[in-house]
Write a structure and sequence with these properties.
Two copies of one chain form a homodimer. By secondary structure, chain A is of the alpha/beta class. The first copy, chain A, contains 17 helices and nine strands. The radius of gyration of chain A is 19 Å and the shape is globular.
Amino acid sequence: MNDTFLRACRGEDVEYTPVWIMRQAGRYLPEYQKVRAGVDFLTLCKTPELAAEVTLQPVDILGVDAAILFSDILIPLEAMGMKLRFHENKGPVLGNPVRGAGDVERLRVPEPLESVPFVLETIRILRKALSGKVPLIGFAGAPFTLATYMIEGGGSKNFINTKALMYREPEVFHSLMRKITDTTIAYLSSQIEAGAHAVQVFDSWAGALAPDDYAVNSLPYVKETVKALRPFGVPVIYFVNNCGGLLEQARASGADVIGIDWRVDIGEAVKRLGGKVSVQGNLDPCALFSSVDVLRLKVEDILKKGRTARGHVFNLGHGILPQTRPDMARALVDIVHELSRN
Amino acid sequence: MNDTFLRACRGEDVEYTPVWIMRQAGRYLPEYQKVRAGVDFLTLCKTPELAAEVTLQPVDILGVDAAILFSDILIPLEAMGMKLRFHENKGPVLGNPVRGAGDVERLRVPEPLESVPFVLETIRILRKALSGKVPLIGFAGAPFTLATYMIEGGGSKNFINTKALMYREPEVFHSLMRKITDTTIAYLSSQIEAGAHAVQVFDSWAGALAPDDYAVNSLPYVKETVKALRPFGVPVIYFVNNCGGLLEQARASGADVIGIDWRVDIGEAVKRLGGKVSVQGNLDPCALFSSVDVLRLKVEDILKKGRTARGHVFNLGHGILPQTRPDMARALVDIVHELSRN
């Protein structure tokens, strides 16, 4: 197996910089669109053969150094008791938002083997299909990020309900975080037991918090999650979106790799993170709307700065956009491989 | 006149920390809603008596230390040749987006006295009405932020068109920035000549750029704008939204005050900005959905850290949200005044 990705996560020597792309299995690929044409998003997530099929697509099409399970961070919330739907253009809707103590009490901490057998089955299929190729990354949402969806009832611009609950009823907020964290630890543990070689924790909305609020309302639950996964011995990546004000704290997460968005200079980020973690990132997803020449310059700069870290996994600084041309994604992977070999 | 705000901008001694609130004249105030009920947004901006009336409301209702002209950053774009409309819930729409060289060529650099006489008249009315009260802040959008609206045709999530133009046709992008910058300098100069005591440049979308892209595509035009205003001798505030990755560069803007959003710790921001500028900010607008007790703790922390700067103007880290209770905004102003006097 090509284990370059795993070695970079651990800060071991590599022959070139490994690369994968957040949302690499997704709407920008015609091959994905073809599968999706016959089935809605939630059904795709819950049908192991299909989820495995779209997971594998970018491995062959792009030549990336890791596969990431096709799923959605909100999947484990259904078994907690949330009513989850995906609307074609509006994104996810959680029909029964959590707004008070009673709502939290009614939530369950589900057992993954019973609640998400389809995810574990997808991982088992992928382990066989990928043997000898590249590692498989499992994932979950970070507890705070999941809480925002549960409280807001979907995506949000300003997170008013989340923060109001956090400020006005901290006990209720923390009892919610307790249940989400327990669910997340069990969920990620079961993914690793089923065969994931590494896991990524997505804190997509951590960056909406002021640093002092992040310290109390997100970071402790991430630390606990990372610590609980330590006995498995697999690399844990912690992606902190909009991390510019949070990097010094994020290094305390205990993760092997800190994933960063494109709004910070990766060289500065390495300094602020200290020397003991690897970094992942961080090309602006919009750079794929430039030319191959511009792309080369930008990749070269990120690779140069990434070399100052213990280890560097190349990635975009956020998910690849649906409007991206697949040939530009392929060019990115090739350029990263070519330039980092030199 | 209460010139505490102007003195804090210049880093001079103050008896207490001055405070104003971004979007302090706006939808959260019933008094504003009443004026707005009879007139659409654009007409309100263009009717000096009404614009002056809503500008004055928060001065009396909240007790803030500065008034800010009621207008919109997109107002000067109409005379450049952009078709501007405001939709009730969708926000601004620019009907003829700039996508190529021909579009840029057709744009004019208008003369403020002819193109925005209503803005200048509003300022003259306010100068009289405010005499002996508080200073008046004029404002404009930063050139890059204005460019995003012109290129995208309105607000945007990912700024694909803006960045694609920036990467693929840099000459076209920079010729657009040239015209916007010239327009902005003339616009702000005319506001100061009409009586504004200070001006704020809003770079609301600078934070969507990777730092190396910001260095080339936003900062130089801000520097030029600030420099052109220097002869007037009034304080210039540069608000950089989502500034976590940009602070070291923002200090090179030459502005007297750097306005920062709530996603960074203001104490860290002061360190990264160096000692030669004042800072403005940076309470999370959602903190106004907490209790007065929580608010006091958060204000106290920001005031303490703000004291490490040359000067500190208290503000939210972004515009006040329409859902905010006016009594919480009033409480904020009182708490800032009370705690900073000690």
